[in-house]
Amino acid sequence: MPNLTDTSQNIYRVRVVVPVHLYDSFDYKLSLDQYQQAQVGARVAVSFGRQNVVGIIVEKLPLDAPINPNFQLKNITELLDDQAILDDNVLSLLTWSAQYYQFPIGEVAQTALPTLLRQGKPYNLLARIWRVLDLHADDKIKRSIKQQDAYKILKLHPTGTSENILNLSGIETATLKALEKKEIIRFELEPQNFKPEPVQLAQMPLTANEDQKKAIQGILKAQKKYQAFLLDGLTGSGKTEVYLQVMQEVLKQGKQVLVLVPEIGLTPQTISRFQSRFHCNIALLHSGLNDSKRLQAWQHAQTGKASIVLGTRSAIYTPMPNLGLIILDEEHDLSFKQQEGFRYHARDVALYRAHLENCPIILGSATPSIDSYHLVEQNKLTKLELNQRAGTALMPKMHLIDLKIAKKDHGLSQQLIEEIKKRLHKKEQVLIFLNRRGYAPVLICESCGWQANCPNCDAHFTVHLKPYQHLHCHHCGTIQRIPDACPSCQQENTFKPIGMGTAKVEESLNELFPDYDVLRVDRDSTSRVGSWQKIYDKIQKAEPTILLGTQMLAKGHHFPYVTLVAILDIDSGLLSVDFRATERTAQLIIQVAGRAGRGEHKGDVYLQTLKPDHPLLNTLINNDYRAFAKQTLKDRQLALLPPCRYAILIRAESKSQDENLSFLQQMNENLREVSGDLIDIWGPIPAPMERKAGRYQSHVVLLSLDRAKMHYYIRTWWQNLLHAKPSNMKITIDIDPQELN
Ligand code: ADP
Ligand code: ZN
Ligand code: ZN
C-alpha cells in the first residue's frame, strides 16, 4: 500500500482512454486530492495534443508503476464525474471489444456513452421539478391550448412535477419554457429518484403451447448463470411470448432485462408489446432519439431505474447494475453488425457480455444464422425449437412462378395479378416485396446501347422520378440530372429505364388496381418522421390494401390481414459471388413469406423467378429453412468457409489499384513468414466493386481454424501494417466480416 499522505516525491497518475484513433491509453497526473476522488469508469477532461477531450479513467496507477519516458506527463484538466458512470463489466466489455476487433480503445469506449456525456456535459442525478408560481394566470394563456393543459396539470400538483413525467404525459418542454417566460411556472433542480419501480403485470400471459413451455422452462433453469440459447422458431410461432414469460420471472426477482432488436425493428408495435405486458420503466435506446432523451433513457438503465432496456445494436454497451437476462431478437439480422468504423457484431459482444454478467442470453430467429447453427453444433448454444405457428394460424404455402414462360403485364405475371385481385375482392391485404428502391436500376439508350453509369463507381445509376427526375448512385450518393440527349449518339428521346424499382412497381400497381390504396414502404417514402407510423396504422385495419416495399417490410412485423405475399425478384441473390448470399436470400424469402397468413386466413406466397430450378428455391418451397441451413453448414464445412474457419478481411482503398495490390502483397509475405500455414491468405484481389466513390478497393481475406493463434499473429502484423502503409491509403480490418464488399 503506497503511503498516500507522503506527497514529497509522489506523482499520482490515472490511465485514461481518449477518443482518438490511436491504439494506446494514456497516463495523466493529478493531485492527491483528485487522485483520492478519481474513480475508475468516471470521465475526465484532459488535453491531448492541442485538443481538449473527454476521456474515461480505466485505471488508478499505483505509485510504483513505471513511467513511460516517451510520453510527457500532463495534468488532467478536470474530474468530470464524482462517481463511476461505466461499471466494471462494461469496462471489461469495452477492453475485450477493442482487443478482439483490433480497434482503438478510446473510440470503442465512445460507443458506450450517449452523445451529451461524450461532449463532457454534466451527468447529474438532478431533475427539473416544475411548480406553479402564478395561480391566477388563466388570462395570460387564453390563446394556447397546450399551455392551458400544462398549467392545469401543474396546478393539480402543488408539490411539483418532474419534467420527465410531464414529457411522458405529452407536455412538451417548449410549452413549459413558454409558461416560464410568462413567469407563470418555474423549475428547480432536485435530486432524482432512481429507485427501481416495482414491476407489475399489466396483462395476463397467453397460455403457452407445448413447444413454448419447453423453451420457457429450459431457459428458466439457467437463471443466475451464463447459458446461451438459440430460440429457433418459425415465423409467427410465438417467440415473443417466450421472451415475455421468461422476462416475467427475471423481472420478478428485481433484475433488469436487455432486449436488442434490429435497427428498423424497433417500431411502435414492438415497443407496445412490451409496454402492454409489463407496467414498469422501459428505457428505449435507438438512433431516432434526440440527445437529451437518449441520455435520460441511458440514465434510467445505468441507475437501475429502468427494468427493461430496449435498444438497437449499440445498446449492448449500456451499463445496467442488475442485468439478469439478455434477449437478441432476429439474431440473423445484418444490422447487428456495424459495417464501418468500429466493426463489431452486437451478437458476439452480447454473448461475451452475458458471460461477464453471468446471466442467460436468448438469441431468437425464424431464420437463424449459419453462424449460430455452427455454435449449436459446438455445444456453445442450446437450441430450443418452436415448430408450429402459435394460436390457430397456419404456415403459408409457397408457389414458384417461372418468369421465362409466364405471360406478363407491367412486370407482374398474369397469374400473380389474378391472385392479387382475388384477395383484394375478399377484402384481404396483399404484400409485394422488391428489394430495390427508386424507379429503375438502369437507364439505357435504345438507339446505341449507352448506359448511365456513375462516374465514380463501377455501378449503374438508379433512375428516380421523384421528387424530380434524376440519376442517383446508391453506392456513393452522386446525383446527376438525366441528360437531354444521349451522350454517346447525341440522339434525343432514346432513353429507356430497364428493370424495376419500388417506385416503378408503385406506378404499375396503381394502373393495374386503380380502386385500391398502394402503400409504399422504403427508405425514400418513410424518411419523414411518423410516415411509417401512418402506414402502419392503416395496415392494422381490416381494409383491402396493397403494401409494397423493400426489406423494411421483412422485419418481424405482424400484419394480420395480409394473406398474399409476392416476391418479385430475388434472382440477383441467387447469383452473387459472396458465399453468404444464399443464406441472406433464404432468410429474406422466409422472413417476407412469414408476413402472410398470420391472422385467421391461410396465406400464400408467390415468388417470381427466372431460375425456378435453383436448389435453394426448391428447398424453401417446403418452408424448410432448417433443411437449407443444415445443407449450407455442410457445404461450408467442406469448403472450409466461415463459420467453419475464422475469417478476417483487410480492405485497402486508394487512388491506385496497383499501389494497393503491391502493398498488400508485401504485407502478406511478412505475415506468411511468421504464421506459416496457420493462416490461409487469399488475395490481394480487387474488391467485387473495384471502384467506389472514385477510389480503388482491394481485399485480403485471412482464414484459420485456430482463432486464438490467428488473432495473436494478426495483432503485431496489423500494427506494422498501419505504420508501413502509404499515407494516402486507407486500410481497415474487419474481424469476422459479414459481407465481402
Ligand atoms: P414470432 O415472434 O415467433 O414471429 P409472435 O410472437 O409475433 O411470433 O406471435 C404470433 C402471434 O401468435 C401473435 O399474435 C401472438 O399474440 C400469438 N401467440 C403467441 N403465442 C400464443 C399462444 N400460446 N396462444 C395463442 N396465441 C399466441
Ligand atoms: Zn457512385
Ligand atoms: Zn445513344
TrEMBL record:
<feature type="binding site">
    <location>
        <position position="445"/>
    </location>
    <ligand>
        <name>Zn(2+) 1</name>
    </ligand>
</feature>
<dbReference type="GO" id="GO:0016887">
    <property type="term" value="F:ATP hydrolysis activity"/>
</dbReference>
<dbReference type="GO" id="GO:0006269">
    <property type="term" value="P:DNA replication, synthesis of primer"/>
</dbReference>
<comment type="subunit">
    <text>Component of the replication restart primosome.</text>
</comment>
<dbReference type="GO" id="GO:0003677">
    <property type="term" value="F:DNA binding"/>
</dbReference>
<keyword id="KW-0479">Metal-binding</keyword>
<feature type="binding site">
    <location>
        <position position="457"/>
    </location>
    <ligand>
        <name>Zn(2+) 2</name>
    </ligand>
</feature>
<dbReference type="Pfam" id="PF00270">
    <property type="entry name" value="DEAD"/>
</dbReference>
<dbReference type="GO" id="GO:0005524">
    <property type="term" value="F:ATP binding"/>
</dbReference>
<feature type="binding site">
    <location>
        <position position="476"/>
    </location>
    <ligand>
        <name>Zn(2+) 2</name>
    </ligand>
</feature>
<dbReference type="InterPro" id="IPR027417">
    <property type="entry name" value="P-loop_NTPase"/>
</dbReference>
<feature type="domain" description="Helicase ATP-binding">
    <location>
        <begin position="220"/>
        <end position="386"/>
    </location>
</feature>
<protein>
    <recommendedName>
        <fullName>Replication restart protein PriA</fullName>
        <ecNumber>5.6.2.4</ecNumber>
    </recommendedName>
</protein>
<dbReference type="Pfam" id="PF17764">
    <property type="entry name" value="PriA_3primeBD"/>
</dbReference>
<dbReference type="InterPro" id="IPR041236">
    <property type="entry name" value="PriA_C"/>
</dbReference>
<feature type="binding site">
    <location>
        <position position="486"/>
    </location>
    <ligand>
        <name>Zn(2+) 1</name>
    </ligand>
</feature>
<keyword id="KW-0347">Helicase</keyword>
<keyword id="KW-0547">Nucleotide-binding</keyword>
<dbReference type="GO" id="GO:0043138">
    <property type="term" value="F:3'-5' DNA helicase activity"/>
</dbReference>
<dbReference type="GO" id="GO:0008270">
    <property type="term" value="F:zinc ion binding"/>
</dbReference>
<dbReference type="GO" id="GO:0006302">
    <property type="term" value="P:double-strand break repair"/>
</dbReference>
<dbReference type="GO" id="GO:1990077">
    <property type="term" value="C:primosome complex"/>
</dbReference>
<feature type="binding site">
    <location>
        <position position="448"/>
    </location>
    <ligand>
        <name>Zn(2+) 1</name>
    </ligand>
</feature>
<keyword id="KW-0067">ATP-binding</keyword>
<keyword id="KW-0862">Zinc</keyword>
<comment type="function">
    <text>Initiates the restart of stalled replication forks, which reloads the replicative helicase on sites other than the origin of replication. Recognizes and binds to abandoned replication forks and remodels them to uncover a helicase loading site. Promotes assembly of the primosome at these replication forks.</text>
</comment>
<dbReference type="Pfam" id="PF18074">
    <property type="entry name" value="PriA_C"/>
</dbReference>
<dbReference type="InterPro" id="IPR001650">
    <property type="entry name" value="Helicase_C-like"/>
</dbReference>
<dbReference type="Pfam" id="PF00271">
    <property type="entry name" value="Helicase_C"/>
</dbReference>
<comment type="similarity">
    <text>Belongs to the helicase family. PriA subfamily.</text>
</comment>
<dbReference type="GO" id="GO:0006310">
    <property type="term" value="P:DNA recombination"/>
</dbReference>
<keyword id="KW-0378">Hydrolase</keyword>
<keyword id="KW-0238">DNA-binding</keyword>
<dbReference type="InterPro" id="IPR005259">
    <property type="entry name" value="PriA"/>
</dbReference>
<dbReference type="InterPro" id="IPR014001">
    <property type="entry name" value="Helicase_ATP-bd"/>
</dbReference>
<feature type="binding site">
    <location>
        <position position="454"/>
    </location>
    <ligand>
        <name>Zn(2+) 2</name>
    </ligand>
</feature>
<dbReference type="InterPro" id="IPR042115">
    <property type="entry name" value="PriA_3primeBD_sf"/>
</dbReference>
<keyword id="KW-0235">DNA replication</keyword>
<feature type="binding site">
    <location>
        <position position="473"/>
    </location>
    <ligand>
        <name>Zn(2+) 2</name>
    </ligand>
</feature>
<feature type="domain" description="Helicase C-terminal">
    <location>
        <begin position="412"/>
        <end position="641"/>
    </location>
</feature>
<dbReference type="GO" id="GO:0006270">
    <property type="term" value="P:DNA replication initiation"/>
</dbReference>
<dbReference type="InterPro" id="IPR041222">
    <property type="entry name" value="PriA_3primeBD"/>
</dbReference>
